[in-house]
Design brief:
Number of helices: 26
Shape: globular
Helix content: 25-40%
Mean pLDDT: 88
Structural class: alpha+beta
Largest sheet: 11 strands, mixed
Strand order of the largest sheet: 1-37-2-3-8-9-10-11-19-20-24
Number of strands: 37
Radius of gyration: 27 Å
Low-confidence stretches: 1-19, 25-31, 255-268, 431-441
């Protein structure tokens, strides 16, 4: 066939598909019916019988009305093979995209727009490290389970080799980049996703960059005010700080003393660090903005304090919103539980990973929150030539490799990756060609920048195969089959990355906490700022032994709360991080538990669920009385101020007072801090009046050193902009409120005039908030509500965020859901987070909620933010969203009789 004829046929086919999609959206006439019928043909078979080659015997898959599968098999091999098959039925597009993310191969699917993200991941080498971990660290049994899972995925893939028979997204992708076909699944594809999880939970890399960028404008004391010490006395720690004995074993007696920390001096290269920050911002969302807002709540209450007489456990991880949901709900059951087939587990996992990450089995339940351990450091490297860098005055050779990035619809791109003794040089892929940090205050001990400047290397436990950092899959399978606290802790010893807070309960009435993870021991420095790579005294000195990590079993308090607050205080032998969450959520949960237990009270499952929905603004309890004391002369502003008079501080979706308070909070942060921040920290398009020196080379107070007011626009991705208004900012503002004349209360008003003082800035914030909310919600404050301002949009993280013309609008309508009006707030237990520097839209959420009743697993409850299916036209794509937004939970069927009673569709997989 002539090439021109083939091209014409391709264009014709593309137009047909476009028309099909448009008719599908419109749903009109016979064409609309045909389109819907075509899409429905890609939905999975949920009942009847399907042959799956390689099974040892038949496997039953029983789904309830929400599409939640409970899988029953005779052997682990059949169980995990069936898990792979069923997850591929529901979520293969998501799985395929995820493995392209972790391999740095998104460009093969989506074209040149993903090259920068691919280059960043390739530089870190996620896939290569995962392969090494699979080859050298995982147990033979875990490898068998991973292989069985892969066989199941590939059995499904052989029946659905791509295109419309797999999912709608492949049809849509084909109209843009034709010819793409998914490759077979491998065990390393599953292991690699743990790198993505760990990266998003890897601690304070962004904080290192931010502090360094701030050091160009602020003194060390001012930066310390923006990153205040954790209020140990007010908000407490997860467990009482114990000691590490001479044998390295952690001992947990109550009581400890608080010591003051020290701040490391800043040594930064501004241009390069900004480029690294931009690269991080270009990464796909994965689980949310890296290291920011990624929190969670979990707590467990002993049976002596519950109405059921057995422990109760709650967990709600906070992640970025997406469609389909981050989590996949599933039960994995050996028909006869034995040593040869030990699994009878149900809970939450990720599509593409075998086993269950969070949930319960027949004996125990466990939950997780992010510990926030500082497991990643940036190192400035003195590059002395194309192949060398400086260490202790001597040139060292880079380890060098080349990576070829294939690009759909375009030429390949070849990048060179250079690796130091502190990790890969991530600044090599900078879009600004190795810009030298002109303003870097590196001090006398630093080597001269010369003509090539400094590079930035990344040291991260997720890339470090020297410390058994790749055995997390061993831990997951260990949790799934653990029967007691001893088994659980043995499994936790393998949970390497990401470092998490693990809570535990069992049917015998025991509760516990364990801190696992590979956490570095530093030489010099504390990880607050990029370290000088040319000085080996800043190198890591090993990792904290698992036996030295804090744990607690059956505390006398009768409960354990983890909400990203410090595990222990500063008297602990090792440093875990300097960037803890500030404990507002943890204290609120603890206070509610203590209030329920006062005077001999007991906590019920309903109480656990109610606590998850607490949307109290703790900061408002301090700030609102001060706002109400201000004498406002403008009746237009006073009308809004009056909304706060009888407000109970609950951030309900229908609350006008909550809307206005959060508007004031946002404006206060912008006036006090955002105006003073460099453009590199503020949101793109956020243009503010700022003070700028007439001559930046002259000191303030001299000729040419005076300032002028100019308009300056931010350059940072909105979800990474500062001030974000989260828990740290509540502590910053709380401390500054004690000083009415703090320099932070100086600002430029709307008339371009410099103003000073707390009273003035509070009045200005109320005025600006009145204007801002009027622009968003209208003049009539009786129509205002926090939910109208604070909205959640659930977006497909590939095609659903594409912005390429008309077709993108069609895809958005097909794949995305929302907006959903939400209550809650960034520092509330019901953590519907938003970035104050960018606006009010929700950017991280309780991604699921669960309440486990150890007295009756069938009485346990759960909810997901979206639904089980990844197919946009499945009834289970978003069937849980409305329930989730209302704070409702679904019944969690577990026993075989309860599962059978709830079953709506039964599928049998046969050899």
């Amino acid at each position: 066939m002539p090439r021109s004829s083939r091209a014409k046929k391709f264009r014709r086919a593309r137009l047909i598909v476009l028309l099909l999609v448009v008719l599908l959206v419109a749903g009109t006439g016979a064409g609309g019916w045909y389109a819907v019928h075509t899409v429905q043909a890609s939905l999975p078979q949920l009942s009847g019988t399907i042959k799956v080659p390689g099974l040892g015997s038949s496997v039953d898959v029983e789904r309830d009305a929400n599409g939640i599968p409970q899988v029953y098999a005779d052997t682990p091999a059949d169980l995990f093979k069936a898990q792979g098959y069923v997850q591929a039925q529901d979520r293969f597009w998501e799985m395929d995209v995820r493995r392209h993310i972790t391999a740095g191969r998104l460009s093969e699917m989506f074209g040149a727009s993903e090259v920068n993200a691919d280059a960043f991941v390739r530089t870190m080498g996620w896939r290569d490290v995962a392969q090494q971990e699979y080859d050298t660290q995982l147990s033979p049994q875990t490898k068998q389970y991973l292989q069985a899972y892969s066989d199941g995925v590939n059995a499904w893939l052989s029946q659905h080799p791509g295109g419309a028979s797999a999912s709608l997204e492949y049809t849509l992708l084909g109209t843009v980049h034709s010819g793409y076909k998914p490759e077979p699944w491998t065990p390393v594809d599953s292991v690699s996703w743990l790198k993505a999880i760990a990266w998003n939970l890897s601690g304070n890399v962004q904080q290192e960059i931010d502090r360094s960028l701030l050091s160009q404008t602020f003194t060390p004391d001012q930066i310390a005010q923006l990153y205040p010490q954790y209020p140990y006395g007010r908000n407490g720690t997860i467990v009482p700080t114990g000691t590490v004995d001479s044998g390295g074993n952690y001992q947990s007696p109550p009581g400890s003393t608080v010591q003051n920390g020290t701040q490391q001096s800043a040594a930064i290269t501004q241009g390069l660090l900004q480029n690294v920050s931009d690269q991080m911002g270009s990464m796909p969302q994965l689980l949310g903005p890296q290291g920011a807002g990624i929190g969670s709540n979990s707590w467990v209450v002993a049976g002596s304090n519950t109405t059921t007489g057995k422990p109760l456990m709650a967990n709600d991880p906070h992640l970025g919103p997406s469609m389909p949901s981050d989590w996949y709900q599933m039960g994995l059951h050996c028909r006869t539980v034995s040593t040869s087939c030990p699994f009878d587990v149900t809970g939450f996992t990720y599509a593409g990973m075998p086993g269950v990450m969070i949930g319960h089995n027949q004996n125990i339940s466990w939950g997780m929150t992010n510990m926030g351990a500082d497991v990643a450091d940036l190192y400035l490297e003195k590059v002395t030539g194309p192949n060398t860098y400086l260490v202790n005055g001597q040139d060292q050779q880079f380890a060098t490799r080349q990576e070829t990035i294939k690009v759909a619809g375009g030429p390949d791109r070849v990048i060179t990756v250079r690796t130091t003794n502190n990790g890969p040089l991530i600044s090599d892929q900078s879009s600004e060609q190795q810009q030298v940090g002109t303003y870097a205050p590196v001090g006398n001990a630093a080597p001269d920048r010369g003509t090539t400047g400094y590079g930035v290397a990344l040291k991260w436990t997720g890339l470090d195969d020297d410390h058994q950092s790749g055995r997390t899959m061993d831990a997951i399978f260990g949790f799934d089959q653990a029967t007691n606290w001893t088994d659980f802790r043995a499994a936790a010893a393998n949970f390497a990355v990401p470092a998490q807070n693990l809570i535990y309960a069992d049917t015998q009435g025991n509760i516990g906490y364990q801190a696992p993870g590979v956490i570095p021991i530093r030489g010099k420095g504390d990880g607050s700022y990029p370290a000088p790579g040319w000085d080996s005294s800043y190198n890591w000195q090993g990792t904290i032994p698992f036996k030295s990590l804090p744990y607690e079993e059956n505390p006398t308090a009768g409960y354990i709360v983890t909400a990203n607050q410090p595990v222990v205080d500063q008297s602990y032998k090792y440093s875990i991080t300097t960037d803890w969450d500030y404990g507002t959520r943890a204290k609120e949960i603890t206070d509610q538990i203590n209030a329920k237990l006062a005077n001999g009270g007991k906590i019920s499952p309903d109480d656990m669920q109610s606590m998850q929905l607490d949307n109290t603004s703790v900061m408002a309890q301090t700030l609102v009385p001060m706002l109400l004391k201000e004498q406002i002369s403008d009746p237009y502003v006073r009308q809004a101020q009056d909304l706060l008079k009888d407000w109970n501080y609950d951030q309900d979706a229908d609350s006008a007072a909550a809307a206005y308070y959060n508007g004031v909070w946002r404006q206060l942060l912008i006036l006090a801090f955002g105006q003073k921040f460099p453009a590199a920290l503020r949101a793109q398009g956020d243009c503010l009046l700022v003070q700028q020196k007439v001559d930046p080379n002259q000191p303030a107070g001299t000729v040419g050193g005076e300032t002028k007011v100019v308009t300056q626009c931010g350059t940072r991705s909105p979800n990474q902009a500062q001030p974000d208004g989260g828990d740290r900012w509540t502590e910053v503002v709380r401390q500054q409120l004690a000083n009415p004349n703090s320099p932070w209360w100086s600002y430029i008003d709307s008339n371009h005039q410099q103003q000073h003082g707390l009273d003035n800035i509070l009045k200005e914030a109320m005025k600006d908030a009145r204007q801002d909310l009027t622009a968003h919600l209208g003049k009539d404050i009786s129509t205002w509500s926090w939910g109208r301002l604070h909205q959640l949009n659930l977006k497909n993280q590939t095609l659903g965020i594409n912005n390429d013309g008309f077709f993108s609008g069609v895809m958005h309508r097909l794949l995305n859901r929302g907006p959903v009006n939400l209550g809650g707030g960034s520092a509330a237990v019901d953590a519907a987070g938003w970035t104050a520097a960018a606006g009010y839209d929700v950017d991280w959420i309780p991604s699921m909620r669960m309440v486990v009743d150890l007295s009756d697993f069938d009485a346990s409850r759960w909810i997901n933010v979206g639904g089980e299916s990844g197919h946009a036209f499945s009834p289970n794509y978003d069937d849980q969203t409305s329930l989730w937004s209302q704070g409702k939970l679904l019944t969690w069927a577990y026993t075989s009789s309860a599962v059978q009673a709830a079953t709506k569709n039964k599928l049998t997989l046969t050899p």
